[in-house]
């Protein structure tokens, strides 16, 4: 379909709907769960040839004018891992593409891990074994035999952990570590490490906006009002203190938000916030609940998602099933 031009037609039909792309991890070569340097370069070439790749703020300005300009696209990178600087940043500069990097500030300060990485570390480091993990009354039968089973185990554990209050989540992770005979380092190891503030300043000076992803990356819908305000306000203050620039962009950790969270995001002074809800942007959309397109590894599926064809296909499936 890509070679036939079907996605080109969809892209033209959706030319007044802006595209915001989501990335997380990058790698030098093909690696599960990460965008390889070769794939990212291919996608940047595709984007810069077909779209007007702009800073995220430009898309928000267009929405506020209720006049979404033609062929706008923005690149966002969540979490602030070191590979955003090592792999993605040189390619962004090569193609002259702006982007937005969303960082949890306590992670950049190396005070915390991103909590989902703890299960990945534990299942990856532990000796081969079978065990039963109990989370919130659910019994998970875990096998750690090979790379595939370890990835599956970490994703199942993280899905269960996501349902827990933040403080119980950390206690449960510590129990996993004990049951597996493993020890979690206080700071994230290199594989799960963040960019440095010096790297963030360099990126900021060369076309990569730095936005807030809270202090510690909690599920915001599961924390109290005081903690919520702290996560939103103190991360914003820390970014402005270090980068000497006003911070108005925010990303909801894990994509979780509700009316209470959205109101506090606005109250904290953020002007733009992105979600994990899939879809393109149209004029009049709420700038505090912007949809994004999740990137794909191969160019054909990437083009399908970016064009809006994937969204149309999913709508058709829902109609058929109902």
Helix proportion? 40-55%
CATH class category name of the largest domain: Alpha Beta
What number of structural domains do the residues give?
2
The radius of gyration is 20 Å
Overall, the morphology is globular
Largest sheet: 8 strands, parallel
Indicate the mean pLDDT: 87
Protein architecture, described:
The structure is a single chain. The protein is α/β, with parallel strands linked by helices and 322 residues long. The protein contains 13 helices and twelve strands. The chain has two domains: 213 residues, Alpha-Beta Barrel (TIM Barrel); 64 residues. Strands 1, 4, 5, 6, 9, 10, 11 and 12 form an eight-stranded parallel beta sheet that branches. The chain has a two-stranded parallel ribbon with strand order 2-3. Helix 3 links the parallel strand 4 and strand 5. The longest helix has 19 residues. The model has no long low-confidence stretch (mean pLDDT 87).
Question: Concise description?
Answer:
This protein is α/β, with parallel strands linked by helices. Helix 2 runs parallel beside helix 4 (83-95) and helix 6 runs antiparallel to helix 7. 45% of the residues lie in helices and 18% in strands.
